[in-house]
Amino acid sequence: MDFTKVQSVGNDFVLVESREDAFDWKSLALAICDRHYGVGSDGLLVLLPSLKADFRMRIFNADGSEAEACGNGLRCLVHHLITTGMAPGEMLSIETYGGIRIAQVTLINGSPNIKIGMGVPILEPDEIPVEIDSDLGDRICGMISNYPVEANGKQLNLNFVSMGNPHAVCFIDDAVADFPLNIIGPMIERNSMFPKRTNLEVVRVINHGTVEMRVWERGVGETLACGTGACAVAVAGWILGRTGNRVDIKLPGGQLTADWCGQGEVYLSGRAETVFNGSWLK
Ligand SMILES: N[C@@H](CCC[C@H](N)C(=O)O)C(=O)O
């Protein structure tokens, strides 16, 4: 099986093209994402034909679980479609479980910048999904915010947003580098209040247009970046009045930009890269 290794801001994926969807992608993800016995990546992207859009993408986490959405994966997939000449033009549509996403490609200093409409954020707890005690936290512009959850003796105030996939966003005052994400991340991911588990973002606001963030991804662990996580942070930051319509999100792997003006779709932009092609022999 031929594959392409792609990455965006250090969030890396193995991408395979297939005309057929009838395949055990879960087992392939578990094997190919393994950093010792496989190719090594945060996830597996499957590029498929679509009856509703130009292409279809499925995304599997390194633990084999399937996610509904993936911002960096989408941008990597679009980059692959452009570099292989498969893209029909500078605008293209991709079908995902979270809905159809439209990508727009522009050249910045000669290299493609990919901006994706990541859909309208979902704030309704049942749809995220998150099970909450209605006596706790606040409801601001529809978002359950400042919801207290204890983990490892620390009280976190969480904000819940779905970008098709679930996110818990936690604003902190100290540098994100000092946050014990390897301990608290798995505890929040698997807290029983999240029936489908969750991604966790810890965020420090630098100014209205800039934040720093680290992410613990559902089904992966800490990654260098997360596109849907960056979108969720922009939404939570806007609703809480901490950030404006455009936010530069500084991550361990680099920078993403998310645009949201309080309604409609969130737009995500940043770079993506093809790293190498290979053949999977197992
Ligand atoms: N890194 C991705 C998100 C991948 C899926 C996530 N781990 C989940 O299970 O929801 C992104 O860039 O959005």
UniProtKB/TrEMBL annotation:
CC terms in the record's Gene Ontology section: cytosol
Keywords assigned by UniProt, alphabetized: Amino-acid biosynthesis, Cytoplasm, Isomerase, Lysine biosynthesis
Signal peptide (from-to): none
Claim: Isomerase is one of the keywords in the record: yes
Top enzyme category: isomerase
GO process annotations (BP): lysine biosynthetic process via diaminopimelate
Site (Could be important to modulate the pK values of the two catalytic cysteine residues): 167, 217
Any one GO molecular function term: diaminopimelate epimerase activity
Sequence intervals crossing the membrane: none
Pathway in which this enzyme or protein is active: Amino-acid biosynthesis; L-lysine biosynthesis via DAP pathway; DL-2,6-diaminopimelate from LL-2,6-diaminopimelate: step 1/1
Localization per Swiss-Prot or TrEMBL: Cytoplasm
Chemical reaction(s) catalysed: (2S,6S)-2,6-diaminopimelate = meso-2,6-diaminopimelate
EC number assigned by the record: 5.1.1.7
Chain positions recorded as substrate binding sites: 11, 61, 71-72, 165, 199, 217-218, 227-228
Pfam assignment, any one: DAP_epimerase
Main localization category: cytoplasm
InterPro entries referenced in this protein's UniProt entry, alphabetically: DAP_epimerase_AS (IPR018510), DAP_epimerase_DapF (IPR001653)
Active-site residue list: 70, 70 (proton donor), 226 (proton acceptor)
Similarity comment text for this entry: Belongs to the diaminopimelate epimerase family.
Subunit description: Homodimer.
Function: Catalyzes the stereoinversion of LL-2,6-diaminopimelate (L,L-DAP) to meso-diaminopimelate (meso-DAP), a precursor of L-lysine and an essential component of the bacterial peptidoglycan.
HAMAP family: DAP_epimerase (MF_00197)
Cross-referenced PANTHER family: DIAMINOPIMELATE EPIMERASE, DIAMINOPIMELATE EPIMERASE, CHLOROPLASTIC
Protein name: Diaminopimelate epimerase
Source species of the chain: Dehalogenimonas alkenigignens
